[in-house]
Amino acid sequence: MQTTRYLSGQFLLAMPGMIDPRFDHAVIAMCAHDADGALGIGIGATIDGLTLHDLLDQFEIAHGAAPPAPVHFGGPVEPRRGFVLHSDDWSGQDTIQVADRWALSSTLDVLRAIAEGSGPARYVIALGYAGWGEGQLDGELARPGWFHVEGDGALLFDTPADRRWTSAFAKAGIDPRLLVADAGTA
């Protein structure tokens, strides 16, 4: 009997040659993965020209203490829906803890708290998410295309988005320059 390993609290990395171009060099912070499906937030790319200040303006929230932090491409599902991955020193009305590694919030109270200077100390803001239905991610993980590593705060909060993919592979002892998109035959 095969046992499924659930990936909440880990990073899912797209391997070179991923068929779906939306996931090219993707780094996904997995927030939920169980028998019913999976949800992750992309943290490997930012959205050009969009900052936290732009989001605050859309909701008529004064910038206050909020820096003009980048907004990440969280995934192809619901790209207008916002998410904040953050340290667990703050909790709001919909905050969920993710494997004792980080927290996830998706309501305006977290943006208000960040602007007021009373929010989480560390955070990553994203629009959209990556989602999989029941058994879908498990099926994808059984084929080449994805690699996973343990999640940690340093990679999530301290590493620039454009270096997360390479840094995550390095954390696993892999030089991604040696990865190839195509498999050979014997």
UniProtKB/TrEMBL annotation:
Pfam families: DUF179. InterPro entries: AlgH-like (IPR003774). It comes from the Bacteria. GO terms for cellular component: cytosol. Belongs to the UPF0301 (AlgH) family. This is UPF0301 protein M9979_16895.
